[in-house]
Automatic annotation (TrEMBL):
A Gene Ontology molecular function term of the record: asparaginyl-tRNA synthase (glutamine-hydrolyzing) activity
Function description: Allows the formation of correctly charged Asn-tRNA(Asn) or Gln-tRNA(Gln) through the transamidation of misacylated Asp-tRNA(Asn) or Glu-tRNA(Gln) in organisms which lack either or both of asparaginyl-tRNA or glutaminyl-tRNA synthetases. The reaction takes place in the presence of glutamine and ATP through an activated phospho-Asp-tRNA(Asn) or phospho-Glu-tRNA(Gln).
Classification via HAMAP family: GatB
Pfam family membership, one: GatB_N
Record protein name field: Aspartyl/glutamyl-tRNA(Asn/Gln) amidotransferase subunit B
Signal peptide location: none
Reaction(s) this enzyme catalyzes, per UniProt: L-aspartyl-tRNA(Asn) + L-glutamine + ATP + H2O = L-asparaginyl-tRNA(Asn) + L-glutamate + ADP + phosphate + 2 H(+); L-glutamyl-tRNA(Gln) + L-glutamine + ATP + H2O = L-glutaminyl-tRNA(Gln) + L-glutamate + ADP + phosphate + H(+)
Subunit and interaction comment: Heterotrimer of A, B and C subunits.
Domain Asn/Gln amidotransferase residue range list: 263-437
UniProt cross-references to NCBIfam families, sorted A to Z: gatB, PRK05477.1-2
EC top class, as a word: ligase
Gene this protein is translated from: gatB
UniProt keyword list: ATP-binding, Ligase, Nucleotide-binding, Protein biosynthesis, Transferase
Family statement drawn from the similarity comment of this UniProt entry: Belongs to the GatB/GatE family. GatB subfamily.
Length: 439
């Protein structure tokens, strides 16, 4: 029996714009007093009209371009209808058949290309808080997050292991941060992960695909890995028991319990038709001009993989380059590039010293580098010769030493350092001086 997991990922990213997607309320909602950043638009009051946020759309297109997508010349918003208490309008403004960006890819380190199906723009929902108030179980709702710009990145089911899924997610995370559209802080829910998993099973009797499962709203890379691994095992066992195969309609949605490390059934998945998508009548369609796209493309800095490659070209080891890029150590990256033209400094060594916390890129790099890499003269015969000459030339100071004035050792070390133009290894030199004075 051969088992091949098929994993796709939906990633939601909250954009860090000043205002929300369709109104002027502040988009920065984290930690704010509940329901203080709302207005008729994001509360979904009757008659309120949405006005799209251009900056958010630019960020969405920027993400698409960074993921090698094409930008659709014609695009529009659609209404996705569903009922939930944190969705006051009864629908989410999203994009259905004409997203801003389609068909791109992301390269894993192995060279494998993971397809990107689409990158579209939508709005976030409010937040429910289940709690106990005056001894009564209640659910509170906070609309500060309602209408915050959200970008959804949908991959093809091209990943075949949880390790590939993790690498994909980390790369998406780094790209989002590098292009400056969001901090993508997972703990604040700025980046939320939804793996879709099924398994291809090949045995003596044929090839079978297990039903698709979408795992909702995961907020850490490791939880995503655990959830995917649990699902793969569960689906294989389930298939062995029931023999149920994937159909067009039997996709289900599961949650992940990070304590029990298991997934659990939430609901049988809605199909697109259940959402009754239709074009948002309050926002006219967009015609995206080529020069608008080119302007956004020019704003994209070197992407993490390109930066890693440029450091590798200077001789920096890949693992060190990855650390410098993933920790966004801009100063260190700059320093490594700047000193790559300096013959006195080896870029590989310099990067490794910084990564290992031995060299502070904010201080004098050359001095630190020299001190850290200096081996100096350790040849005791050569140093003995030099020190002996100094001792012979300064009998009175030797006499002081013999009387117990041991701090004159420093004088001899200093003189010998001068003689060697600072090239002596300090430890070896100090040993030689002490030995000769004690003779
Ligand atoms: Zn508002
Ligand atoms: Mn979505």
């Amino acid at each position: 029996m051969k088992i091949t997991p098929l994993i796709g990922l939906e990633v939601h990213v909250e954009l860090e714009t000043k205002s929300k997607m369709f109104c002027g309320c502040p988009a920065d909602h984290f930690g704010k007093a509940p329901n203080t950043q709302t207005c008729p638009v994001c509360l979904g009051l009757p008659g309120a009209l949405p006005v799209p946020n251009q900056k958010a759309i630019e960020s969405c297109i920027k993400i698409g371009l960074a993921l090698n997508c094409s930008v659709n010349r014609l695009s529009k918003f659609d209404r996705k209808q569903y009922f939930y208490p944190d969705l006051p309008k009864g629908y989410q403004i999203s994009q259905y058949d004409q997203p801003f960006c389609s068909v791109g890819f992301l390269n894993l380190d192995s060279g494998k290309k993971i397809g990107i199906e689409r990158v579209h723009q939508e709005e976030d929902t409010g937040k429910l808080q289940h709690t106990v108030l005056n001894g009564e179980k209640v659910t509170l709702v906070d609309f500060n997050r309602s209408g915050v710009p959200l970008v959804e990145i949908v991959s093809m089911p091209d990943m075949t292991s949880s390790a590939e899924a993790k690498e994909y997610l980390k790369k998406i995370h780094e790209i989002i941060r590098a292009i400056g559209v969001s901090n993508a802080d997972m703990e604040k829910g700025q980046m939320r992960l939804e793996p879709t998993v099924n398994v291809c099973i090949e045995n003596e009797t044929g090839i079978y695909y297990t039903p698709l499962v979408e795992i909702k709203n995961i907020n850490s890379f490791n939880f995503a890995v655990q959830a995917i691994e649990f699902e793969i095992k569960r689906q294989v066992q389930e298939f062995e028991k029931s023999g149920i195969e994937k159909t067009a309609t039997n996709k289900t949605t599961r949650g992940y319990d990070s304590v029990k490390k298991t997934t659990f059934l939430q609901r049988t998945k809605e199909e697109a038709k259940d959402y009754r998508y239709f074009p948002e009548p309050d926002i006219p369609p967009f015609i995206i001009e080529e020069d608008f796209v080119e302007r956004i493309r020019k704003e994209i800095p070197l992407l993490p993989d390109q930066e890693i490659f440029s450091l590798e070209k200077l001789g920096v080891e890949k693992k060190d380059a990855k650390i410098l890029i993933s920790t966004q150590n801009r100063l260190a990256i700059q320093i490594v590039h700047d000193y790559s033209r300096d013959d006195r400094i080896d870029s590989k060594k310099l990067a490794s010293l910084i990564v290992n916390g031995k060299l502070n890129p904010a201080q004098d790099v050359l001095v630190q580098y020299r001190n850290l890499t200096k081996i100096g003269i350790t040849d005791t015969t050569q140093l003995t010769q030099i020190v002996q000459n100094i001792i012979d030339g300064n009998p009175s100071i030797v006499a002081e030493y013999k009387k117990g004035k041991t701090n004159v050792v420093g004088f001899f070390i200093g003189q010998a350092m001068k003689e060697t133009k600072g090239a002596a290894n300090p430890k070896t030199l100090s040993d030689v001086v002490t030995e000769l004075l004690n003779r």
